[in-house]
């Protein structure tokens, strides 16, 4: 770490942030998104103005 200095620390922080965001998106897509879609579809099917 001595030869890279602060640049390596910045790269480490950026990669941790990147992987945190990637994992968060996977959690959303696999667990939360289906629940939201189901909820919206239920609301859509309960509308009165449908033919």
UniProtKB/TrEMBL annotation:
Sorted UniProt keywords: Membrane, Transmembrane, Transmembrane helix
TM annotation in the entry: 6-32
The organism's place on the tree of life at top rank: Bacteria
Protein name: Biopolymer transporter ExbB
Species in which this protein is naturally found: Pseudidiomarina aestuarii
Highest classification ranks of the organism: Bacteria, Pseudomonadati, Pseudomonadota, Gammaproteobacteria, Alteromonadales
